[in-house]
Task: structure prediction
Amino acid sequence: MVKTESITIQVPVEMRKYLEELSPESELRRNALLLYPYILNQSISHGRAAEILGIGKSELLDIYDKLGYSYLDLIQDELEEDIDTYLQLKKKG
Result:
């Protein structure tokens, strides 16, 4: 089991009812979503995020996939950026 602690966050009043008494599955999904921006900005990897949540990387990828955040799309975007960078460097050289 993952060690947890409580924190206080500021949310709009109307959100409160959606955050009270979440099921363990909903809490996991919420926490995965809280980590997603850090994956996008490459502060942490999918593997590290899964480790923080106490689940396997494949389980985390399944959560994101069900929410419409495909791992393969992220890889495709990175690949396209790498190709663009390569082509720009090739033009300069």
